[in-house]
Amino acid sequence: MFFSPQAKETEDDLFNYKVELNKLLDIMRHGPMGVILGLRRVGKTSLLKVAYNKFKGPKAWLDGLVVRDETHMWEVLNLKIKQILLNASLKYKFKNLIRNIEIEHVKIKWIDENLEDVIRKEHVKGVLIIDEIQLLKKYGIDKWLAYIYDHLPLRVIISGSQIGIVEKMIGETKEGMKPLKGRLIRRIELKPLNFQKAQVFLIQGMEQINKRISEVEIQEVYSALGGFMGWLTYYGYYRQFYDHEYALNMVKKKAADITSDELLNLLYYTDKTYLMVLDAISNGYKNWKSIKNFLSIQHSLKLSDSSLKRRLDRLIDMSFIIKKHMVYQLSDPLLKQGLKYFFNFQN
Ligand SMILES: Nc1ncnc2c1ncn2[C@@H]1O[C@H](COP(=O)(O)OP(=O)(O)OP(=O)(O)O)[C@@H](O)[C@H]1O
Ligand SMILES: [Mg+2]
Q: Are 83 and 154 within 8 A, CB to CB?
C-alpha cells in the first residue's frame, strides 16, 4: 500500500523507483561503494530498505540516528562488521577481535587484522548500509569509509538528506582534499516527483484504499505539498478517514510539527540568525540584496556580505534551501509551516 506512513519495505509498496532499485542492487552485488542523495522525505530510506530486504548476501544496517558519540560509533561499526561475518556463516574463531589502529591521525578500536584477513580471503562481499550518515561526519566516518574502500571487499552504501554535507564527505566539491576523493562512489539521486508522477501516485494509491480523487484535488494537493513522497503519503493516509480539505490541513499541521523540529535541530548547531535568513527566503526574498533588506527591516539584523554568504552556504549544505538560477528558495515549501513556530506571520 502506497499510503502507509512508515518507510516502505517491499517492492510492491514502492512507487516509481524501479531504475534506482536495480542500480542499488547492482551496487550491493558488485560494489564498490554507493551513495543515495535526496532532500528530506523523497524516499531514501524506503528505497534502501526494499533493496536491503531483497539482497540475500551478508548484510547489516546502521542508522546514524542511534549513534550517541564517537566511541559508540566505533563500537557499533565493529558490531555491524561482525554481524556481516556471522551472516556469512564463517566458522573461524578468534581470541582477539579488536585492535587499536590509526586512520589519518584518528585513533580507533577496530576489528583484528585476522578478521580483516578472513573477510579478504573469503571474499566476504557483505553490504553495510549507513543511513543518515551526515550525523557521523563529526566523528570522522569519512576516513573510515576510505579505509574500508581501500582494504576490504565490503560494499558500503551511504545515504543522507543533507546533500551538501554528504557531497563534501565523498569529495564531490572543489574545496580541498577529502578522504574519499578519487574513489569510485556510485551515486543515486532521488528527486521530488513531477506533477505527472505525483498524479499517478495519488490515483493509484487512492485505488488501493478504494477511494477516488478528482483532478482539481490533485492539483490542490500538488500545489500545496509539492512532489515530496512523504507529504503525499501523509495526505493519502489522512484521506482514508477525512475529506480532501481536512486531509490537506492535517498534512500541514503534521508538517508544522516535523519541520519545526528540524528547525530546532538547526538552531542547536547554529543560531537564530539562520532562521531569520530562512524567514526572509520563505517570504519571497530571493537574492542577497532583498534578503539583507528584509533582515534589516523585519529583524533589525545587519549582516555583512560574508556573514550572509556563510549562512546561505550552510543552509544549502544542510538542504534547507536550494539555489536555482541564481536565486534562493526553500527546498521544501512546507518548511514555512515550521517557521511559523518561530516567527508570527500569516498564511
Ligand atoms: N517510493 C515510494 N513509494 C511509496 N511511498 C514512499 C516512497 N518513498 C517514500 N515513501 C513514503 O514517504 C515517506 C518518507 O519516506 P522515507 O522515510 O523513505 O524518506 P527519506 O528520504 O528517507 O526521508 P528522510 O530524509 O526524512 O529520512 C514515508 O511515509 C514513506 O512510506
Ligand atoms: Mg530516511
A: no
